Each structure stands twice: as structure tokens, then as C-alpha cells.
């Protein structure tokens, strides 16, 4: 059963933000309207979903956003380029190090100082970014298991995520909002003994991830709740501009770390996991979880290679200065610049405009992956049950700070 419900706004009523066509005629034949959120664990943030149901069957879903608007782009128009980094941290606050990395590279390419960056700086950046990718995926996988009813994976992953947060705090002094990757360098070099601590952690974590696969991905109940639910075909994924695990789960092998080879990812040996389609149609909720779990294994491989570089060719030396290439005043050439990179949720891109005279951007536009990934929700939810809608929302891995920006 399916039908289209047309919504119209009341002209002149500026205070009313909800569609006005909520008459008995619209919800005839037993249909009714409910709200999920904006304060509810199943919405993974301050997201409100307006859901039209026929019994437990979802007829329509309308996402309402704007409850966590941070005014990032407006703030950026009043700040020097180097002072924008703390605001970038607060968009995707679960993976702030990855966002910093993309922005710093964007500015370095625009300023033409990319070749001045010491290789040790780049390998440290990749190391901390992949640690943050692991921590981010642990939140996504753990909370998603809890959505479905599996509580143990959440406890395991939060335990292991705590190890990562403590290491990142050791490096930067902060647990979530780091301001560690600077334009041209780093806030500090990594502490003495940090490489050994990371090596111990990765050796500990790899068998734990294998246990997680057996406990969650191969669990019969989890498979029944996620296989064939919220399927996103390849064409639909491309049309909606999906990126990251959402795109790769649909069978499209695309990752900016591979295709662009930015930073020193071109020297890293790793694979791009894609949806298998073994437990249902490719691109379902199971595939999206599977891709994130397999990306954790690939991040471990990248971390191991970075450690080899940092202990070998790019080892610590007395003359190494992580801030040596940091410009004192940042005034890029007049014009526009665009750069994109891969965060745990997909493609983060920045479009920037400068006048060539000021160290403050005229315009800074962020393309956040969670916003585009959320846009496909109404398309893939219709015809499913209400319980399946919870599974679909959780599989998107939203961070509302970057949806609202």
C-alpha cells in the first residue's frame, strides 16, 4: 500500500513551520501522524522525523532539521583562516581530526605550500585521522547494534573507543575537539612513546574486531533485522549524492583517499570495502554496517604503515619542527578554491572565496556528507515498518552538527 500526501504551507503564517495539510481527509483510511524526535535516542541527535503511518506501515517520512544550527559558514566570514579550525571541529564532533585534516590540506594547496610540509607531519596526520576514524565507526556500529537490540557490542566498542580518545588526548590535550592539525603543520609533535602505545593498541584491537564480526554481523537476529531493509540501489545512491560507507555499501568502489591520493595516502596499501549483498540486496542496512566494520580493519592497516614510517624514514629528530611551515599570515590569492576529502561519513568539501587582501574569507561553504546522506531517507523508508525505520535511520550514521552546520 502506498500513496502520496501533498503538503502545503499556510501563506503569511511565518511562525508555523509544519505542513498545514493535516486534515482528517488526508489521514483517512486509518492513517495517522507521529513525530520521532527531536529528543530521542533512535534519531541519533536532535533530528525530528514526521512520519505518516498506516498501522505500522510507513507511508511518508519528512525530516525536520535545524535544531543544532551552529552558524559555521557565517562565523567563518568573520574569522582569519587559521582560527576557523576550532569551528570545523564542532561540525562533525565525532571525527573532528578528519575534518581538520581536509581543511588544512585545502588551505595548503590553495596557498601553494603543500611541498613544504614535512613527511613526518603528513604521516602523523594520517595516523591520528585513522585513529579518529576508528573511534567514529565505533560509535556508529555500537549505537546501531543497540538500536537493533544488541547491547554487548556497544559496551565493547565504547570500551575500546575510550583507549583511542585517551591517546588523542595525550597528543592534543582534548578528547573530542582537538585543534591539532594546523595549516602548514601540527600543534605539537606526537609525545615520546606514542608510537609504542598505538602499536600495543592495534595488536589488541584486531582480534576484538573479529569477535565483533561474529557477535554482530553474523548474528541471526541482526541479519533478520537489517538484511533487505532500506536498500539503496547504485543509481539512487549516485542521484542523491551519497558518499562514504553509504555509497560503498551500494557496491560503488569510491573513496577519496584512493581516487585522489591526497596527503600521503597514495603511499598506503589498503582496500576499499564495498557491500557484499550476501545477506540480502546490495546496499541494505546490513551492508552499511558491514562496510564500516571492514573499514576498521583497513584503518588498522594504514595505522601500522604510518608507525613503520614514523619509526623509520620519518623518525623523530631534534631539528624537526611541526610548525615550521605554518604561515604567520594567511592571505590566499584572490579567487575561488575547492577541495574535498574522505571523513568517516563520506565526502567533506570546502568551497572558499578570498579577495587577496584580507586574511578573512569572503565566503566559506562546507559540503557535509551527513546532509546529503540524510536526504535519501524518505525514498528508502516508504513501505517499511516503523521498527524498520529505526534501523534505517541508524544505518545512515548521522551527526547533526554537520547537517545543520
- Secondary structural class: alpha+beta
N- to C-terminal distance = 37 Å
Tally of helical runs: 15
Number of domains: 1
Characterize the main sheet: 3 strands, antiparallel
Q: How are the strands of the biggest sheet laid out side by side?
A: 1-2-3
CATH class: Mainly Alpha
Which range best describes the helical content: under 10%, 10-25%, 25-40%, 40-55%, 55-70% or over 70%? 40-55%
Rg, Å, rounded: 22 Å
Shape from CA axes? Answer: globular
Portion in strands: 5-15%
State the CATH superfamily name. Answer: Cytochrome-c3 Hydrogenase, chain B
Mean of residue pLDDT? 90
DSSP strand tally: 8
CATH architecture: Orthogonal Bundle
- Residue ranges: pLDDT <50 for 5 or more in a row? 1-23
Output the keywords.
three-stranded antiparallel β-sheet, 405 residues, disordered N terminus, alpha+beta, 15 helices
What would you note in describing this structure?
By secondary structure, this protein is α+β, with helices and mostly antiparallel strands. The protein has a single domain, classed as Orthogonal Bundle (Cytochrome-c3 Hydrogenase, chain B), CATH 1.10.645. It contains 15 helices and eight strands. The strands form three sheets. Strands 1-2-3 form a three-stranded antiparallel sheet. The chain has a three-stranded antiparallel sheet with strand order 6-7-8. A two-stranded antiparallel sheet has the order 4-5. Helix 5 runs antiparallel to helix 6, helix 6 packs antiparallel against helix 11 and helix 11 packs parallel to helix 14. It is globular and about 70 Å long. The two termini are 37 Å apart. The relative contact order is 0.17. The N terminus is likely disordered.
Amino acid at each position: 500500500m502506498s500513496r502520496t500526501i501533498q503538503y502545503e504551507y499556510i501563506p503569511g503564517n511565518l511562525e508555523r513551520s509544519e505542513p498545514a495539510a493535516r486534515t482528517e481527509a488526508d489521514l483517512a483510511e486509518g492513517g495517522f501522524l507521529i513525530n520521532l524526535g527531536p529528543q530521542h535516542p533512535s534519531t541519533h541527535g536532535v533530528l525530528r522525523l514526521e512520519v505518516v503511518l498506516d498501522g505500522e506501515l510507513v507511508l511518508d517520512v519528512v525530516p525536520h532539521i535545524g535544531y543544532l544550527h551552529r552558524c559555521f559558514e557565517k562565523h567563518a566570514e568573520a574569522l582569519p583562516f587559521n582560527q576557523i579550525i576550532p569551528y570545523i571541529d564542532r561540525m562533525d564532533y565525532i571525527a573532528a581530526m578528519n575534518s581538520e585534516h581536509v581543511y588544512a590540506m585545502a588551505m595548503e594547496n590553495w596557498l601553494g605550500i603543500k611541498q613544504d610540509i614535512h613527511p613526518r607531519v603528513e604521516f602523523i596526520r594520517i595516523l591520528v585521522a585513522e585513529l579518529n576514524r576508528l573511534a567514529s565507526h565505533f560509535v556508529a556500529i555500537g549505537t546501531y547494534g543497540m538500536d537493533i537490540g544488541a547491547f554487548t557490542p556497544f559496551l565493547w566498542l565504547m570500551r575500546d573507543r575510550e583507549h583511542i580518545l585517551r591517546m588523542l588526548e595525550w597528543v592534543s590535550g582534548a578528547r573530542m575537539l582537538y585543534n591539532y592539525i594546523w595549516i602548514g603543520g601540527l600543534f605539537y609533535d606526537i609525545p615520546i612513546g606514542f608510537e609504542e602505545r598505538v602499536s600495543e593498541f592495534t595488536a589488541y584491537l584486531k582480534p576484538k574486531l573479529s569477535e565483533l564480526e561474529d557477535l554482530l554481523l553474523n548474528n541471526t537476529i541482526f541479519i533478520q533485522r537489517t538484511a533487505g531493509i532500506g536498500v539503496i540501489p547504485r543509481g539512487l545512491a549516485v542521484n542523491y549524492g551519497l558518499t562514504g560507507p553509504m555509497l560503498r555499501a551500494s557496491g560503488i568502489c569510491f573513496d577519496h583517499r584512493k581516487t585522489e591520493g591526497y596527503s600521503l595516502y597514495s603511499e598506503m596499501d589498503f582496500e576499499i570495502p564495498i557491500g557484499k549483498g550476501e545477506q540480502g540486496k546490495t546496499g541494505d542496512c546490513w551492508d552499511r554496517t558491514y562496510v564500516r566494520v571492514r573499514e576498521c580493519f583497513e584503518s588498522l592497516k594504514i595505522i601500522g604503515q604510518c608507525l613503520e614510517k614514523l619509526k623509520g624514514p620519518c623518525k623523530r629528530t631534534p631539528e624537526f619542527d611541526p610548525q615550521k611551515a605554518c604561515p604567520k599570515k594567511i592571505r590566499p590569492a584572490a579567487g575561488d578554491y575547492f577541495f574535498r576529502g574522505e571523513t568517516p561519513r563520506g565526502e567533506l568539501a570546502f568551497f572558499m572565496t578570498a579577495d587577496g587582501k584580507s586574511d578573512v574569507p569572503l565566503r566559506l561553504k562546507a559540503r557535509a556528507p551527513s546532509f546529503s546522506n540524510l536526504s535519501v531517507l524518505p525514498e528508502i523508508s516508504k513501505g517499511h515498518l516503523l521498527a524498520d525505520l529505526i534501523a534505517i535511520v541508524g544505518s545512515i550514521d548521522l551527526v547533526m552538527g554537520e547537517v545543520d552546520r
